[in-house]
Specification:
- It contains one helix and no strands.
- By secondary structure, the protein is mainly α.
């Protein structure tokens, strides 16, 4: 008697079309675009806040300098 060999075949995988590949690449590009925009907004906001802080600090220094600049006392005669 000859043994019978039965080979189990997995379910066929879903076929990937060109449209599936394009949609996947558009999705990844969109994620990179949104990430870059958020990072740019965050860094831009930090840059603006730093410049405002630096400008307010410079104004305080100028006010302090202005008080130190006075006319010399008049000689007594």
């Amino acid at each position: 008697m000859t043994p019978i060999i039965v080979r189990m075949i997995d379910k066929p995988t879903k076929e990937i079309s060109m449209a599936d590949v394009l949609m996947g690449s558009v999705g990844i590009t969109g994620i990179f675009l949104i990430g870059a925009a958020l990072l740019g907004l965050a860094l831009g906001g930090m840059f603006i806040l730093y410049r405002r802080w630096q400008a307010s600090r410079d104004v305080e220094d100028q006010i302090g300098d202005a008080f130190r600049l006075t006319q010399p006392p008049k000689p007594r005669s």
